[in-house]
Every structure is written in C-alpha cells, then in structure tokens.
Amino acid sequence: MIARGYQPSTHRSRLFQKTDFDNFDKIYVMDSNVYKLAKEMARNENDLKKIDYLMNEVYPGRNISITDPCLMDDIHELNNAIEMIETAIDNIIAKYEK
After folding, report:
1. What is the largest CA-CA distance in the chain?
2. Domains of the chain, each with CATH number or no CATH
3. How many CB atoms lie within 10 A of CB 84?
4. What DSSP line would sit under the chain, residue for residue?
5. Is 21 buried (19+), middle (13-18) or exposed (0-12) by CB count in 10 A?
6. pLDDT, tens digit, for every residue of 31-86?
7. How far is residue 88's CA from residue 85's CA, in Å, rounded to a whole number?
8. How far apart are CA 61 and CA 91, in angstroms?
C-alpha cells in the first residue's frame, strides 16, 4: 500500500453502526457478507435503499465483491483490490461533480 501512496498507519476503521443510516446518504459495502450484515441492520425501507456495493458505481447491478485489502498477502491481489476501489471512488467523485 505504501508503494501506491497509502500510509496504513494513518487509516482508521470502525464497525458499521445503525446510526450510520442517519448520518450518511449512502452506505457502500465491498462484499456480500457486509452487504448481508448491513441489510440485517436496516430499520426500514429507506435504510435499505442506502446500501449498495461499491463496485456498482463501476458496473451497475453486478454486485461485484472486493476482498478487503488488509486481508491480502499477495501484492498482485492487493494492487487489484486497490485499483477497483480507486476506480469506484473516481466514478463517485465524477458523478457528484456534475
């Protein structure tokens, strides 16, 4: 990750919370396990509408999973995951810049 300009020691994560539905317009997930968990935490139809796969920003409706880069040992798999995430983020930024 460092070779790609990311400093893992400066990144923080936390578990998803039900209150995130109140605080965020969109909840992006990277894989089917997290998608299922987020759906189970949804309190209503409005919450459910906020949940989507991150890669649906690149390939709408395909529900493509991305393996968590922090769980990877293979550098090629890691780079592939980071490229997928960066592409999706670029698409999100472009969508909201319009």
Report:
1. 42
2. 15-97 (3.40.50.2300)
3. 19
4. -GGGT--GGG-------TTHHHH-S-EEESSHHHHHHHHHH--SHHHHHHEEEGGGGTSTT-------GGG---HHHHHHHHHHHHHHHHHHHHHHH-
5. buried
6. 999 999 999 999 999 999 999 999 999 999 999 999 887 776 778 888 898 899 99
7. 5
8. 15
